[in-house]
Design a protein that fits this description.
globular, alpha/beta
Length: 153
């Protein structure tokens, strides 16, 4: 397998796919390098945005390259630990999420409450938006609606 942590590897996932059994996307580094933002530097860390359209489109490209070659794609890194992000990742077709054990209950609860088709719809909608802020607002609104029982709406 290959861990994709730099943009050059992600962009060439289709070329790598025939030679591997799986892809793992290392989101901490991929986001940092893709957005040219040091996530630990307080002067620029606020620009580190996992929901940035470039990040989501890059992940979608890796998933598509994997699917075309029968290569499963997993994600490791802090991005998978956020329930909002996890819904988008699953909606994009990511099959496995790796996260710290403390994040599992929250992510699991949200993923159990969202149908796969809804996650795909939300991911597709996110790919059509132009800013991380717009994506986050849409996801929060739609997930609140999806996770609210019909009897209380």
């Amino acid at each position: 397998g290959v861990t994709l942590e730099v943009p050059s590897a992600a962009v060439t996932a289709d070329l790598l796919a025939p030679d591997v059994d799986f892809f793992t996307i290392g989101t901490n580094d991929l986001i940092q390098y893709l957005l040219a933002v040091d996530r630990v530097d307080p002067r620029v860390s606020s620009l580190y945005e996992p929901l940035h359209p470039a990040v989501l489109r890059t992940i979608a490209g890796v998933v598509a390259a994997g699917a075309a070659s029968g290569v499963p794609v997993s994600v490791c890194g802090e991005m998978a630990s956020d329930p909002l992000n996890a819904v988008v990742l699953v909606g994009l077709g990511v099959l496995e999420l790796s996260m710290s054990p403390s994040a599992i209950p929250r992510v699991k609860a949200v993923l159990r409450g969202v149908a796969a088709e809804e996650a795909r719809r939300l991911a597709a909608a996110a790919l059509g938006l132009s800013t991380a802020a717009a994506i986050e607002v849409m996801l929060r609104r739609e997930l609140a609606r999806a996770l609210t029982p019909a009897s209380t709406r």
